[in-house]
Design a protein that fits this description.
This protein is mainly α. It has helices spanning 4-18, 26-39, 43-51, 62-77, 84-97, 101-110, 121-132.
Length: 133
């Protein structure tokens, strides 16, 4: 991730994804705040993003796209609910990122095998490695 704007774009995409079910639950908000802190985005800038139209990040590297996909999977599951609309949107985001559809589907299938549907990063990486070889 090269710039502050790219980090804002990542958060913006995540906020839009969280709102796909027309709400932003407290658990999703707190998760997003935590991601903002990890990305070095202060609370005021984050709050401003909540009021703006979503922008799409232009993640250049494959690892950055995989990390963002993982963040979105975690965000989808933070409220312990999954909606068809979220799954559909997540699949489309993965496609637009250029991630292998079979890998994204595998992640979405196996997440149910883990507590709170949190796919461990090493498992996620192995899935994508398999699909790139």
């Amino acid at each position: 991730m090269d710039s502050y704007q790219e980090r804002l774009d990542i958060l913006s995409e995540m906020i839009a994804f969280a709102r796909v079910d027309n709400s932003l639950k407290d658990s999703e908000y707190h998760f997003l705040i935590t991601v903002a802190e990890q990305l070095g985005v202060d609370k005021d800038a984050f709050e401003a993003l909540l009021q703006q139209k979503a922008s799409k990040p232009s993640l250049k590297s494959q690892p950055d796209r995989i990390v963002q996909f993982h963040r979105l999977v975690l965000l989808m599951n933070v409220d312990q609910e999954q909606h068809d609309k979220e799954m559909y949107r997540l699949r489309n985001i993965g496609l637009k990122m250029g991630l292998p559809p079979a890998a994204t589907e595998q992640v979405l299938r196996i997440m149910h095998q883990y507590p709170n549907k949190v796919v461990p990063p090493d498992v996620l990486i192995d899935i994508f490695k398999t699909h790139y070889n």
